[in-house]
Amino acid sequence: MEKDTVSMYFVRAAVAKLPPPAQLQALAAAGIPAEWLGMAHARVPASAFSALWLAVGRALDDEFFGLDRRGMKVGSYALMCQAVISCTTMERAIKRILRGFAVFLDEVAGELVVQGPRAELRLHNRIADAADRRFADETFLVLTHGLLCWLIGRRFVLDEVSFAHPRPEHAAEYTRMFCEHLRFEQPLTAIRFDAELLRAPIVQNAETLQSFLATAPQSVFLRYKNDDSWTARLRRRLRQASIQAGETHWPLLEELAAELGTNPTTLRRRLEAEGTSYQQLKDRLRSDLAIDRLVSSQASIDELALELGFHDASAFHRAFRRWTGLPPGAYRRREQGEPEREMR
């Protein structure tokens, strides 16, 4: 099973409305070191971000991170899910979800627009601060899209996502969250999809809803990722290479392009359009694999370095510190709750 991690951007945004002492408490509850807030390229396990979302919600009594002036009191999302579960089609579910958000929020609202064969879910966001407005759009879309995927029991395929804000540094995250066709600096944030999907039947029921809510919010933002993007296809191929080889040999971009029936230039261009590159993709996967193996295995640092395709342990040390801000041994000790030692 692929191990998922979440960008530190979302961690910083999640705790932004908490006062410093409450930030420390929420981060501690999620097992996320406070010093990581200053590490731009650090990533945390999805389970840790899920725990953080819950901790921030409890601290603010707001499941929408304190972004809207009214806010969503704890329990609002579950109440909305319970109201939606009786719907029979996707269209009815979307309309009921949007009505639910209209009840809970003042400054962010959604609108369903159908024009012939295309449908759009448009966001109207009146939050003044630009960073808050962007995170509110992201949160609204994650909560809505994740719920819709679960309701129909499969990925709710999006044709395009437009954002009202400029392309951010974490734009590559959007390709896995939503789809690979992204547009920025648009008049409105919106998701676009085939209107035929509005007729899709709801396959969940009150019994399955309890399991869904028991694992929320992780069940919301991870259950149905975009597995059709070029980024996801290459990531699957690279992960296969990491499993099959004892001492990992990462394929060359030219080899992968040939396997996928394209050429290296086109593949580079497609990855760039999704906000990433082959090197970034390898580093991201190595980082995820290293974090998982450090926490879940007793393999030595030297063994992990070889597994991940590094020439020696020192190269692995340097890369891991660049990814997380800590040496691998210090990261393992922290995760296992051992006393801190002096870092080299």
TrEMBL record:
Keywords: DNA-binding, Transcription, Transcription regulation. InterPro entries: AraC-type_N (IPR032687), Homeodomain-like_sf (IPR009057), HTH_AraC (IPR018060), Tscrpt_reg_AraC-type_HTH (IPR020449). GO terms for molecular function: DNA-binding transcription factor activity; transcription cis-regulatory region binding. SUPFAM superfamilies: Homeodomain-like. Residues 253-334 form the HTH araC/xylS-type domain. PROSITE patterns: HTH_ARAC_FAMILY_2. The keyword Transcription applies. This is AraC family transcriptional regulator. The lineage of its organism: Bacteria, Pseudomonadati, Pseudomonadota, Betaproteobacteria, Burkholderiales.
